[in-house]
Each structure stands twice: as C-alpha cells, then as structure tokens.
Design goal:
Elements lengths: L1 H5 L3 H19 L2 H40 L4 H6 L12 H15 L2 H11 L13 H14 L8 H13 L1 H24 L9 H6 L19 H6 L14 H19 L2 H10 L1 H10 L6 H4 L5 H4 L1 H13 L18 E5 L4 E2 H8 L3 H7 L7 E2 L8 E5 H9 L1 H14 L10 E2 L2 E4 L6 H8 L3 H7 L12 E4 L5 E2 L6 E3 L14 E3 L6 H5 L7 H8 L11 E3 L4
Length: about 550
C-alpha cells in the first residue's frame, strides 16, 4: 500500500486531497442542504445534457442545410432527409389545443343543416325572452331600418324569429360570427365593387351557414347556393374535377351579378332576395295572388314555405350581427382572414395531398382554402386559370421550390395504380332513354328532379312510359358526359363559326348573353362582356355586339 502511494504523481495527490476536502464539507452540511444541493445538481446535469443534445442536433441540421446549399438544391432537399434529424419542434400544448378547436369550428359543416332546418320550420309563435323587451327591439329595428335599404320595420313575425334565434341558437350564431371574420371582407369588397348593399353579406349565412361545400337536398351548391343551370348562366363551370359554385371568389362575383339583375327587375331588395331563393316566377305569382301588392310582408303568405321564412331569417340574422354586443356574443376570431391568403396559378396537375406534404400545411386547412376542387386535385388545362390558394407565409415556400414540387408530384401521379378521371365538363341537359323497369318516380329520383318537371319538359299527359322513349331532363345533380348508351349529351345545333374578327351581332328581343354565346363557337358569356365593356347582363334589342377580341 505504501508502495502504491509512493508511486502516485502530483496530479493524483492533488485529486485525493480535493476529494477529502469535499467529503469533510459534505459531512458538515445538514441533511436538508445535502438534499437541496443534490437536487440542484441533478437538474443542472439534466439541463446540461439536454443542451448538449440540442447543440448536436442543431449542428446536424446545419450540416444538412449547408450540404443542400453547396449542392445547389433548395430547402425541399433538406426536408427529404429531415427524418434522420432527431430534433422535433414542439408547440405549447394549450395553445395548440386552442388552434385545433378553432380549426374544428372553421371546417365544421354541421351548421348548414341547422340553418336550413331553421328557415323551413319557422312557426312565428310568440317567444318569451326577457333580455329583449319589445320596446327595445322596436327602437333598434327603427335604427337599423334607417341605415339599410331593407324593410326592417317591426312586426310580430320578425320579433318571433329574432327572439327564437337569440334563445335557441346563441352558440351556433356565435360560431358563425367567428367564421364571418374570415369571409365577410371578401363579400364586402365584391358587393362594394358592384354597388350592392353590404348587408347582403348576411344572405350567405342564411343560404349556406358559410360552408363553401354546402349542398341542399335539391342540389343547390356553395356559399351562395347556386343551382346547376343558374350557375352556368353566370359563368360558373362544373367538371369532373372542379365545381366553381364552391369557389368563394367566383361564386360571390356571380351572386352579386345575379342579385343586381333581380333588383333591376323588381326595384326592391326584399323582393330581389325572395326571388333569389325561389325564382322570379314564384314572386310574380305571389304578387298577382296578393292583388298586385309588392311589399314582401303582404305577399309572404303566397310564397313557397321556404321563401316565406327566408327574408325573416335574413333580417333576424342581420339584427343579431349588427347588435351582437348587446346580446353577449363572444365569437372566436380566426387565425387569418381571406385577404391574408394569396393564389398561385398551377403549371401542371397536382393534388392537395401533395401540396400538404411538400410544404408542410394541414390538409384540412388546404381543403378549406381550395373548396372548389371536388377530388382534391387541381387540374391543368390549357387556357384555363386554375389556382392554388395558400396562406401568405406559405406562398414564398411553394414558389421557391415549385420545380422540385412539380417534379415529385408528376412522379407520384404517374406511379398511381388507379388512373385519374379525364377532365370532362358536366352537362346541363341530357337525353335519357327509358329502359325496362323504369318509371317516372325512379328517373326523377335518379336525377334529383320532380316528376311534374319531367312531364312538363317532355309534354307528357300521363305517367306512362315506353321502353326506348327519349326524355329531356335538366338534372339538379350534375351528370358528366358519358359514352353510356342510356345517357347521352344533348343534341344542339352546331355553333356558327366566326367568319372574321370584324363580325358583329345585333341583339334581338328575348336575347340574353347566355343565348347569344350558344350561337357562336368559342364565345362565352365572359367573352361578350369583356369584348363589349358590359357589366352584368344588361343588353337591349338593337345593341350591336363584337363577337371576337378586338
């Protein structure tokens, strides 16, 4: 033992002395002090280890990014090898939960059914609601009436609807107020552009509960609930991939044009809204049956049941939104508004799943921002402008990596086992050949129309059909062009070819932009508007229209 001690060098001796001094000092500490110091040292040691690990991870990540830059590749390359890096960014759990709850509200479509049912089942019975005395309501409606072009004067039916909504739909309306923060700036901009009352924005709540993918039982679709034929009249196309009725911007533009036309017909916004819901024909019939009176409340009893509840629901919604602070509404604000997004014109076919994966964006958020792509695929068609909408902070990331993104997307799509459907436009009229076992009710159900409509379209006096008989049908559910023997595209007269760039057309009585566009090959309603500086659909007999681009 003494030999071993003698063989020690100075470093060993100093180390042993240090240990002895430390031991004596530790022996003099109280048990509590020893425990605290041990705990502190363990925490420090744990933190030190974590810090060292993170430094290593950051160094590894830096190496990956640096190597990508040296090789002349983009940040997308580092994304491909990101899995080999252990570090994963973490969010504050409580805040992440709040975001998740907001997104659930944003993407939830259950409100549409609730809204639809509330409009069609209004009873107008007196409702007890002590927080809103009748005198207070009358004063507020008078104030609202003075600043809007709608007739919002007090009546018992309107009071019933307002109090019913406040009493039974407080939570749903609060959710809609949150959604409105996202959509209303878009609506107001287009309404202002076309000189339409900004209060029309509340119509989209009654129509669709601000769900761009909403679809009614009769096939009306989108934020503004366009029927297939009406959408086509106002330039909204439907194909195997795209339904422009679900595009917030395009559908809003078309809704404004349609409402503007209806106002020109009736000269009254209440009647314009009623005809937007049920068609101008039903409104004019109600006016006739009411002895020529044109006040909505005087003709309401002669309107279809749904339309009878339509304007009261609109006015009640307007009142509640305008006086939300008086009724203790606390809506959750959205993460971003519509104007905080932007679009990129796609250069090749790409799926939303691929975009979600390549630039790390939630697929639900992506689908919400791009609702018009029915299959989650953005097609690329020559001379068509199909765009991808993204939050502003993701735009630069996509553009900086678009060559790689398109390359990977093309490779993935080519490798799919099941081929994607070909791009075909849906047809607004079909010729159906009656088969064995067919009857009017079965055919009507298949295409989402009424038996009486099929009889009217085909001048049928009875319900009897014969095998092989051809029926003309305007389906409420869009039908794509098919090679089937039973359903064929409509047979129309071929469009006339435009002879030269100087050809003109003289508008005849009964002409519309739509009917004129059908007479000439390669001419659309939008072409006619652009070439002739026409806003809306206002044309008059005798007007001469250019049929080609100047």
């Amino acid at each position: 033992m003494s030999r071993g001690f003698c063989n020690m060098n100075n470093h060993h001796i100093i180390f042993l002395c240090f240990l002895m001094v430390s031991f004596l000092a530790l022996a003099q500490e109280t048990p509590q002090e020893q425990s605290n110091q041990t705990s502190t040292k363990q925490i420090e040691r744990t933190e030190q280890v974590k810090l060292q690990q993170n430094i290593v991870r950051v160094i590894d990540t830096t190496k990956v990014v640096s190597s990508s830059i040296e090789l002349g590749t983009s940040t997308l390359t580092s994304t491909k090898v990101k899995d080999s890096v252990a570090y994963v960014a973490k969010d504050y759990p409580k805040l992440a939960d709040l975001d998740a709850k907001w997104k659930q509200e944003l993407y939830n479509s259950s409100l549409f059914d609730t809204i639809y049912n509330s409009v069609t089942t209004l009873e107008y019975q007196p409702v007890e609601y002590v927080d809103l005395p009748t005198d207070t309501l009358k004063a507020r409606l008078k104030e609202l009436n003075a600043r809007t072009p709608f007739n919002v004067e007090y009546n018992a039916s309107l009071e019933s609807v307002i109090k019913n909504y406040l009493k039974n739909r407080h939570e749903q309306l609060e959710r809609l107020m949150g959604l409105s923060e996202f959509y209303f700036p878009l609506f107001e901009q287009e309404l202002d552009n076309q000189n339409i009352p900004l209060e029309i924005k509340y119509l989209a709540i009654v129509e669709s509960a601000l769900n761009p993918r909403a679809k009614s039982r009769v096939g009306a679709t989108g934020l503004w609930q366009f029927m297939f034929g009406t959408g086509k009249m106002f330039g909204l196309e439907v194909s195997s991939y795209v339904d422009e009725r679900m595009d917030p911007i395009m559908a809003t533009k078309s809704a404004c044009k349609y409402l503007s036309n209806l106002y020109k017909i009736f000269g009254d916004w209440d009647l314009a809204l009623a005809s937007y819901n049920s068609g101008p024909g039903n409104v004019t019939k109600a006016i006739r049956r009411s002895g020529g009176r044109k006040n909505y409340w005087n003709i309401r009893h002669n309107l279809p049941r749904e339309t009878a509840g339509y304007l009261p629901a609109f006015l009640a919604t307007m009142y509640i939104f305008e006086f939300a602070d008086k009724h203790n509404f606390r809506p959750r604000k959205p993460e971003f508004a519509y104007f905080e997004t932007d679009t990129i014109r796609v250069k090749q076919m790409i799926s939303l799943d691929q975009v979600s994966k390549f630039i790390n964006i939630d697929i639900k958020e992506l689908e919400f921002l791009n609702p018009s792509y029915k299959l989650g695929i953005i097609p690329f068609i020559k001379d068509e402008d199909y765009v991808l909408r993204l939050p502003l902070e993701k735009i630069g990331l996509f553009v900086a990596n678009e060559d790689q993104i398109y390359g990977l997307a093309k490779t993935e799509l080519a490798a799919r086992e099941k081929q994607l459907p070909k791009f075909v436009e849906a047809n607004d009229r079909i010729r159906y050949r009656v088969r064995s076992g067919d009857y009017l009710g079965k055919i009507a159900k298949k295409f989402g129309v009424g038996i009486s409509q099929i009889k009217r379209w085909n001048s049928l006096r009875s319900n009897n059909l014969r095998i092989g008989q051809r029926l003309t049908i305007y389906p409420r559910r869009p039908v794509v062009r098919s090679s089937s023997k039973t359903v064929t595209p409509k047979k129309t007269e071929p469009k006339a070819l435009i002879a030269s760039s100087s050809e003109m057309y003289t508008v005849k009585s009964g002409d519309t932009l739509w009917s004129i566009s059908q007479k000439f090959k390669g001419v659309s309603v939008e072409n006619l508007r652009n070439w002739n500086d026409i806003s809306g659909s206002g044309i008059k007999p005798g007007m001469r229209l250019k049929l080609s681009k100047p």
